[in-house]
Amino acid sequence: MTEMENKAVGYTVQQGVATITMQSAPVNALSRAVRVGLIDGIESALSDDSVSAIVITSSLALFSGGADISEFSGGDLSPNLPEVLDKIENATKPVVAVLPGPAFGGGLEVALACHHRITFAGNQVGLPEVNLGILPGAGGTQRLPRLADPATALTMIVTGKPTSVVKLPGVFDKISDKPEHLLEDTKQYLASLNAENCIKRTSDITLTMSEEVQGVFDAVTAQTKKAARGFFAPLKCIEAVKGAYTLAFEDGLKHEGKLFMECMNTPQARAQQHFFFAERAAGHVSDFDKSTPERSIEKVAVIGAGTMGGGIAMNFANAGIPVTMLELKQEALDKGLALIRKNYENSAKKGKLTQEQVETRMALLSGTTTYDDLADVDLVIEAVFEKMEVKKTVFTTLDKVCKPGAILASNTSTLDVNEIAACTSRPQDVIGLHFFSPANVMKLLEVVKAEDTSADVIKTCMKLAKRIKKVAVLVGVCFGFVGNRMIEPYGREANRLLLEGASPEQVDRVLTQFGMPMGPFTMGDMAGLDIGYYVRQSRQAFISHDPTYGAVADRLVEKDRNGLKTGRGAYLYEAGSRVPIPDPEVLEIAKQEAARLGVTQRDDISDEEILVRCLYTLINEGACILEEGIAAKSSDIDVIYVYGYGFPVYRGGPMQYADEVGLGEIVDKLSTYAERLGDYGKMWLQPSDLLIKLAQERSSFAKFKN
Ligand code: 3H9
């Protein structure tokens, strides 16, 4: 038995088999150390006459998470991954990949370059590069189609979705029934190799573009153009895979390499890679560490069984956690529980749940009309009407009935969590858990720490979010926290643009072309214009210095144009339809309001003006939020915007987008419009201090540390 010195990759020889073991925690990313280890291992095995076969495997629960994404921004990349795979595939002794767990991206490409692949049923593999704005660049687009059926290979590469190994019979030479049998099955497989079957190079397989395969390409291309609107990489993936059918293997690899670099050099790739790390970094917070204890959450209660409360409760039932919903009236409670059942039944009809799963989840949900039944819960989430007095009544009662150590959370989207905490005798146990609507669908959770919230409560909630499959971002207390505070200037400018003469459809078009799933007017109509109206009514002091603030929206609500639910808002809607229809009456209302308020309407509002005024002001607010420490880092804001507001992930979030555009440019444009719009511009469009400072230093939000 011989051993090689490389901490990232182990090497042993036993009974004629050289085993190269990737052991680079946490995910065997194919860093330079791993690549060097793989090459060294292959070379050692080839030069050792006692070795007749080579196994590449992993000591972790995962085979490999693929290329090391952190290396994409530079550094010494030699040997590169394609060189490593070339070495593996051209080895003159059989190389067998043994996958004890998932293989993604470059990890799967390593396996595809081996001569044989063994794994167990229940494992998954994938080529998720497209989610990073790139394509598989180490032969994945050439080798996978040579082993898998065309539709599966193409779909895997274009969507990036993981696939069960049992759906890839051509890729795996042996699939053990259980992971425990993998070792024994590998031994048997190795013993079965003989001179004829021992070296099978994927590159030797020739593919042709038949009519049937062309049909697959046409269908996937049409589907991709619809599903991946705005994304650059997916269509490049299709182009690369085409090379597998139309070019010789070596030429196909070169074609893939060229397309890979084309993708890599785009702002989209930078944005999507930024977002990959942003999402993970959101979980790294300085408020607690490994030594901070966690509270046990085995029983949850939700106050309020309306749409929001019901959606929140479903998250816990989905995760197997019993949850009690409280409504003071039995009728409201019954209605809430019935709505949840209806939601689950709908999922079952769509084949997303079995009837058994529906029943299991419903059995975890119970209802009560009395607070006394909440005495033994570990966590209560209040989801009642958004009014401070109502919330205070709830929390005063919870303080009386809940056991010591129970976490008392508010789902408020705007109110002061410190004030709520202050009406209890245990402010250290009070926190905000701001779910986004629909709460059972949206992945984002703003975890709002109040002044006295204890570290263990924060840690428990951040960890709990993972259990219920949410992406949690820790934020501080201010009106609207991060997400809603930043959406305020976005909506404000949209409404003011309407007053100045833009149409709802022009504003919405500019922002959907930018990549937002819908424009601010369509979004407002969907949410209900009355919601914003009541928020404005309750914040008169805040808006009193600008009588034009939300003026058109207010008039729309006063004319019973509350949005989709009333069939008219900023648009008209036909009965049963969600398709917005432009309505000249809205322009007329805006015209009258402009005349009343002394605002001159213009017909020269450009698309650029709309983008700057809606989006750059949102970014500007993000800068204030950063400076105030409401968000700990700019990437947290990006996560909130992508998961909470559908901000296009290929822009990386508003703060990454601003960094990509350049903060100097953002300052210049805001200043230009601040100047051009006179008193209004001076009031609302001035760049913030932090934005100006970072721009002057030629720095970025990403580099800002509070
Ligand atoms: C590629 O392969 C290109 C090639 O085709 C061509 C090259 C020429 N690199 O997600 P987790 C870190 S592109 C660097 O919490 P999980 C991650 O940041 C790659 N770091 O664990 C985190 O760090 P921290 C294609 C990586 O168990 C820690 O590992 N592959 C990488 O929930 C744990 O991560 C992909 O796109 C990486 N590749 O999920 C797969 N992967 O603790 C990307 C992870 O400091 N990875 N890290 O925050 C994943 O999807 C998930 O991480 C995985 C594990 C499913 C593997």
From TrEMBL:
Primary subcellular site in the record, as a coarse category: other
NADP as a keyword of this entry, yes or no, is no
3-hydroxyacyl-CoA dehydrogenase C-terminal domain location, by residue?
480-573, 611-695
- Write down the InterPro entries for this protein, in alphabetical order: 3-OHacyl-CoA_DH_NAD-bd, 3HC_DH_C, 6-PGluconate_DH-like_C_sf, ClpP/crotonase-like_dom_sf, Enoyl-CoA_hydra/iso, NAD(P)-bd_dom_sf
Subcellular location per UniProt equals: Peroxisome
Gene Ontology MF term list: (3S)-3-hydroxyacyl-CoA dehydrogenase (NAD+) activity; enoyl-CoA hydratase activity; isomerase activity; NAD+ binding
- Biological process (GO) annotations? fatty acid beta-oxidation
UniProt keyword list: Fatty acid metabolism, Isomerase, Lipid degradation, Lipid metabolism, Lyase, Multifunctional enzyme, NAD, Oxidoreductase, Peroxisome
Note the Pfam families from the entry.
3HCDH, 3HCDH_N, ECH_1
In this chain the 3-hydroxyacyl-CoA dehydrogenase NAD binding domain maps to 299-476
Official protein name in the record: 3-hydroxyacyl-CoA dehydrogenase
Q: Which organism is it from?
A: Alteromonas naphthalenivorans
